Amino acid sequence: MRFFLAVIGLCSLLVPAPAFAETPSDPLSWLGRIASAGQRLNYVGTFIYQSGGHVETSRIAHRVDAGGEYERLEVLDGSPREVVRNGSEVRCVLPEQKTVIIDEAGGRRAFPARLPASLVGLAESYRIRKGEAGRVAGLEAQALVLEPRDDLRYGYTLWAEVQSGLLLKSRMVDERGGVIEQFTFSDVRIGGEVDGELLKSRFDTGDGWRVVNARGSAMPKSESGWQLLEPLPGYALISVMRRPLGRDRGQALHMVFSDGLAAISVFIEPVGDGSAIGLGPVASGAINIYKRTVDGHLITVLGEVPERAVRRIGDGIQPAAQ
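User: That's the sequence. What structure does it adopt?
Assistant: Structure tokens below.
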């Protein structure tokens, strides 16, 4: 299961020139611009991630052309790591382990493409309003505030570049207004050409490297064999997949629940040697994790949501009635 946490941590963590449209007045239209800009614009920049006492700097290059979407994100601090996207394929490169993890690009994307393409139902879980205008990375930005309507999700403030709509800064806060995590561009260039060299891995991943295929296979939600007995308000099951656990270990069921912004992953796998260690809640940075066992299976629930949300889903997941 630590493998899956690493994949999510790295891979959660994608038109040539920006279309400078007239800025909208209502907040939902602003959110639509943010969602579109992160996926459809060319940009190159450096951003800083902060969570608690952890601070990390990353460089990102993103290009969209007739061939599709391309992106390279490199973490500049600590152990070298990079995530390279080529169309629907994402490669997480871990040089110190000489390992490449291959996965499919999912619905949950990395900064600055934090918002999903569809924002349907978001207003049911959040009160959305415009905040103050300001400056981020030397650019004019409009703030959008999303206040949760209950205690099952965190609040957000998003700063969008006024002309293009690109997300320049994202802050997640708890119920007391304390900052849980924050992404901020320190410099960014929006639009223009993005050289292909900026999108290629700088590591030679040939001989001696281990390649891990983490691609899952989608399956109908009704055929998962598991169900959430009591729905979590605002969250809906959006995908079910089978994911490989590794050599001779079979597969895990991966279910994703989302309110349109926050996402909660549920992994269900057979209980193995030592897998039941550390049951209960635990936090890892901005991610809350909850584990329990049921009917010979280990249930692992995680997401950037309050502990009570992952606990309620973890306690409510049961084998479907036959």
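The chain is about 10% helix and 45% strand.
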